[in-house]
Amino acid sequence: MKQRQSELDSDEPLPAVPARVLSGRLLLILLPLAAGYLFFSCENDLERIQKITSLDHFPDAAGQKYEILYSDSFRVKVRILAPEIERYARVDDPYIEFPQGLTAYFYDDSLNIEAYIKAKHAVYKENERLWEAKNNVEGQNLKNKNQLNTEHMFWDEQRKMIYSHTQSRIVNEDGTFYGEKGFEARQDLSWYRLKKSKGVVKLKDE
After folding, report:
1. Could you tell me which of 85, 81, 43 has the C-alpha nearest to residue 62?
2. DSSP state, residue 143
3. DSSP secondary structure code for residue 127 in this structure
């Protein structure tokens, strides 16, 4: 996975901020408040304040207007655009958070966009190479017109599959179909399978 700041916008993107600088600024604000609070607090409150001010709760790096590229044989296969990115590396399971969401574009061998997926919030688990998207997740294959809507979805980049365990909807030329227990599909939505499905089929005139 290759990451770089996007050059699509005219404004110069903000550089990544080292965690020690970002955390230091926040701690300067939090520590005086914590000191005043401790004066009237018990030992249980001390644990809570230490947890709040822990460096693990602040990103190691942060930036805006980011672009992530996946390539195969020198061809771009996936392009992800995100307005904001935060990386957390000092935790047991390092991850990258996209607090303002993202849009992922999937390309064919001719570098034409064949599908897209977007969400209002996402997290990438680095060790598992697993993406988790939440809140108004939408996707579409531009060739077969399969359109996906769900509130919670995973993307396994190694298997090139997407899936969900929550109610999902697929709309295409054949009708509207629901997976009450979710779905699984290829990442480009060229194939899908609904779990515990139901739906309305469009009847074509003879």
Report:
1. 85
2. T
3. T
* C-alpha separations of 199 from 6, 17, 85, 176, 188 in Å: 40, 48, 37, 5, 22
Q: State if pTM tops 0.85.
A: no
How many alpha carbons lie under 13 Å from residue 95 in its C-beta half-sphere? Answer: 17
> What's the rounded Cα separation, in Å, for the pair 22 and 25?
5
Tokens of 30: 């939090």
| Domain spans in the chain, listed from the N-terminal domain onward | 17-58, 62-206
Structure tokens at 206: 């003879």
Decide if 150 contacts 164 (C-beta within 8 A): yes
CATH number of 62-206: 2.60.450.10
CB-side exposure of 40: number of CA atoms within 13 Å? Answer: 3
Tens place of pLDDT per residue across the chain (206 aa):
655 554 444 444 333 323 332 232 222 223 333 333 333 344 456 566 555 555 556 777 888 888 999 988 888 999 999 999 999 988 899 999 999 999 999 999 999 999 999 999 999 999 999 999 999 999 999 999 999 999 999 999 999 999 999 999 999 999 999 999 999 999 999 999 999 888 766 656 55
CB 162 within 8 A of CB 177: no
